[in-house]
Specification:
Length: 137
């Protein structure tokens, strides 16, 4: 079950934030979230951060979570963010028979890829802020 929370990102933008936390990078995403204040303001968009190793055993759950995310606040733009090497390309496990080498391999095309193994909370915040700069608030 996906849970979205309105948070103020570094830089002041309020977004509805959700995660699919699958492995190590999830700890960095949690640290980012801990640095963000919850907000009562209306979000400008919805962000789904997918972090960690994608496996064939979790494929169904990932697809269900994505469908839930896309149904939430349909009036807002929805953006998917692949956080870290595993969600981007399979990371160090790319050649395992049970690992999916990145979201694009299952037809989910992220709007933003954040490199790193793992990327720091600051790197995640910088990448998201940079990607959102051109988007009107």
């Amino acid at each position: 079950m996906i849970t979205l929370t309105n948070v103020e990102l570094p830089g002041g933008r309020v977004v509805a934030l959700a995660e699919i936390p699958l492995a190590c990078c999830a700890l960095e995403v949690y640290a980012l979230r801990a640095s963000c204040a919850e907000s009562a303001a209306a979000p400008t968009e919805a962000l789904l951060l997918v972090s960690g190793t994608l496996t064939t055993a979790l494929l169904c759950e990932i697809q269900v979570a994505l469908a839930q995310f896309q149904a939430y606040l349909p009036e807002l733009p929805h953006r998917i963010v692949a956080v870290g090497a595993c969600a981007t390309s399979g990371g160090p496990y790319w050649d395992s028979p049970t690992v999916i080498p990145g979201l694009a391999e299952i037809g989910i095309h992220p709007d933003l890829y954040i490199a790193g193994c793992p990327p720091s909370p600051g790197a995640i915040a910088s990448a998201i802020s940079g990607a959102l700069q051109g988007v009107s608030a």
